[in-house]
Amino acid sequence: MRMRRKTHLEERLAACEETGKLKIIWCEDRNFEEAVKVKELFDFEKMFGNNNPVHLEIGCGKGQFACDLATRYPDINVLAVEKTSNVIVDAAEKAIALNIPNLMLLRCEAEYLEKFIPEHSIERIYLNFSCPFPKKSYAIHRLTHSRFLKIYEKLLKEGAEIHQKTDNKGLFEFSLNELSGYGFTLKNVSLDLHASDFKGNIMTEYEKRFSEMGQPIYRLEAYLRR
Predict the structure, then answer these.
(1) CATH number for the domain harbouring residue 40
(2) What is the model's pLDDT at position 7?
């Protein structure tokens, strides 16, 4: 079902941008392979005011995970990315209201991340409850498809990790195959996160809803040896 456009969306986005907490990037060149060749790289030290490790959440939704992560770990800088303006405005307003200094938000599509994020600058990537795109013909849009893994490889530091959580078994199986096939090493794979002994889990909005319905949450960690 198509999400109804929020009232005064443009004004709300502009207000968030004015605080410096939200960056909105519109890439006019829809050929991302060409667009990313012209770099507009962020200076993370300037952006966050320190040189702490940067964690990247791709598809942050309404921002609950990113806000909780940044609050729990003040010595980590969190860059939360969401492509939908109608959604990221909620995340930005939440982060502003909570006054979280080590959290920045970016409205951008994942295909363009390497245009803005310096190579080998990210300590960890989170993929939380990404759209599963269940039709086989749409597999190329899944955030663990090899075309995205190629982007992540450029962004991640040596030994950095990808952490994924999903309620969708099909997407999880697809991710295991894609990551392994690309050369990532898997660890801490869980077929039912909340029934495991995993410590330190940070819940997302979707996760809370799905777990309350009794659905298992699938989780993995992956790293690439160069």
Answers:
(1) 3.40.50.150
(2) 84
